[in-house]
UniProtKB/TrEMBL annotation:
Gene3D superfamilies reported in the protein's UniProt record: 3.40.630.30
PROSITE patterns the UniProt entry points to: GNAT (PS51186)
Cross-referenced InterPro entries: Acyl_CoA_acyltransferase, GNAT_dom, N-acetyltransferase
Keywords: Transferase
Protein name: Acetyl transferase
GO MF entry, a single one: acyltransferase activity, transferring groups other than amino-acyl groups
Taxonomic source organism: Halobacteriovorax marinus (strain ATCC BAA-682 / DSM 15412 / SJ) (Bacteriovorax marinus)
Domain of life: Bacteria
Amino acid sequence: MIIETERLILRQWKDSDIDPFVKLNLDEETMKFFPSTYARDVSEKLINREIERISKDDIGLLAVELKETGEFIGFIGLARPSYETHFTPCTEIGWRIYKDFWGKGYASEGARAVLDFAFEELGLEEVVSFTSRLNLASIRVMEKIGMVRDTDGDFKHPMVEDDSELKDHVLFRVRSVNG
């Protein structure tokens, strides 16, 4: 599965993505809205899980590279959370981009293309996204790609410690125009 935009290629993972992905997940600024950074083995397991998910389900977190240079810059894609909340089961859109590439519109550009794929190719009726209420940059991306906050859907993330400032999450939704 490959999704192309004007500046990006979203694709299956390659061995050459491992080291830059590990570096991405060890960066404290990139991971500041997660409970912790990810050790190498966690990043490698995540890649292996996504390779399998993409080949089996046609959904997953896709590696993102710049068309112009072929450089790996992060991931954008779809997932189905394995934990229970009031809005699961669901399909979630998410992204993680190297901080050197923040503010250039890459997350929004790739996420719009993934939403198009979700609605047009997979026939999904709705996609959600959520983040810590403190993550204003991701909230802006959600708004830019046409998602709307469901204030009644905000929740305490079950995978975040109760005493963490990251516990409170905002929920955004977008529905297919055909849905």
